[in-house]
Amino acid sequence: MSNYQQDIDTIATLKAAKDGTWDGINPDYVARMKAQNRFKTGLDIARYTAAIMRRDMAEYDADSSQYTQSLGCWHGFIGQQKMLSVKKHQGTTDKRYLYLSGWMVAALRSEFGPLPDQSMHEKTSVPALIEELYTFLRQADARELGDLFKQLDAAKANGGDVAAIQAQIDNFQTHVVPIIADIDAGFGNEEATYLLAKKMIEAGACCIQIENQVSDAKQCGHQDGKVTVPHEDFLSKINAVRYAFLELGVDDGVIVARTDSLGAGLTQKIPVSTQEGDLASQYNAFLETSPVTSLSDINEGDMILKLNGQLAKPVRLPNGLFKFKAGTGFDRVVLDCITSLKHGADLLWIETEKPHVGQIGDMVRAIRKVVPDAKLVYNNSPSFNWTLNFRQQVFDLWQEEGRDLTGYERANLMSAQYDESELAIAADDKIRSFQRDAAREAGIFHHLITLPTYHTAALSTDTLAKDYFGKEGMLAYVHGVQRQEIRRGLACVKHQAMAGSDLGDTHKEYFSGEGALKAAGEDNTMNQFNL
């Protein structure tokens, strides 16, 4: 017996025990409302989605073609429409997640207005967005199940295939999927990280991504001026997130440890080493230093270290920050990743300056010498110029192969004049297969695009505004938007229903019977879309 049928029987039994005082309650309707509200709390969602992620990670370990994907969403409606589209076109939500980008929270959700990605926005806006996303996803469940219940009633009344519709209800796949949520660098010390992590988990987050930058000097991963913290500081925040998961009973919670060391050339402080070769000593070995052979080498306020048995003076900038040696980024990334995985992280995030399978794969192979099942969450970032990067990669490959590159100018390969060229087509093929190739060759379990819907909103608005305020007028909207919604079968064309009017009518009918004042009558203009 399905949960739906069990709930009908349970409520009917409960109703019968109330001596007629519950005669206005229909057990079937109660069971429907329970089915439409499967997840009662954010913690229910976090536990459910954590199990999904753990299953997906195990399946990826067994077969790298089983990688996962997500798009960053800055509003609940965007996340809802994304998952409705995924389910419509792919037939399933399996291995499709949501990503919550700190960049987009800062740029689009702060009460201060648009902000740079520097942890300047209100930290409460992060759990608020998680809750909003799941509110919209749960509403998508309720709306689609509501349609199935209407079909079930019609089938019962008209002799339709009741069993087939009942099977769809019993096997309904929720739109609620895992969210990988960005906590930036923790918004303060480890206690602040713990408190914020709790709020995010309570809102539904099963996976929290945290980075090894200094919290009060945090920069976007694709900008200059990044400053990392010593491993001990970062590990305390990983512990803080794990404690939050365990306290709230989300034992399978997933932590993504992000390293910005590939592009970060500075550190805020020098950790204390207690013995040669310890973690602090390994971190300090990457510092740019000058030798100290006499007191004359030491200036007022200088700091002196003993490294490998020698005295050395770390290079210190006027702002008090310390420099790393040039060319140490690769090795620092590898050490960061190994250390994080050995101290409680589940997945890695390596922020790179370009999307290059070979570069990423080299780092992952070095990590896997120590942690064989290491795997990545990777940012397929809009900050990369994908077209130019991959055209240059193909150019360089062809150059190594000795192919004739007459007619191609490497620095100008972004030009539209190359769009139909053999090189551009080859580059597009590499972009098309990038996620598949990187999952196989570079250990990438999850591919995400951090802020695609920021760009799609800008692009679609530009297209509409250009023509609507130009000579096309209303046709710009009709041809470019509404007609496309109708032709492509977007449920959102009936925006009143998408916003919940049909659900509200159904509930009014449950509560008030034939006396319900409903919105979906003959004069509802949404009927024009019943095509």
UniProtKB/TrEMBL annotation:
GO molecular function, one term: metal ion binding
Reactions listed under catalytic activity: D-threo-isocitrate = glyoxylate + succinate
Note on how the cofactor is bound: Can also use Mn(2+) ion.
Metal-binding is among the record's keywords: yes
InterPro entries: ICL/PEPM, Isocitrate_lyase, Pyrv/PenolPyrv_kinase-like_dom, Pyrv_kinase-like_dom_sf
Binding-site residues, substrate: 101-103, 221-222, 258, 379-383, 450
Residue ranges of coiled coil: none
Keywords linked to the UniProt accession: Lyase, Magnesium, Metal-binding
Cofactors named for this entry: Mg(2+)
Signal sequence residues: none
Residues that hold Mg(2+) according to the record: 182
Enzyme active site: 220
Superkingdom as given in the UniProt entry: Bacteria
GO terms for biological process, alphabetical: carboxylic acid metabolic process
Keyword set includes rRNA-binding: no
This protein's name: Isocitrate lyase
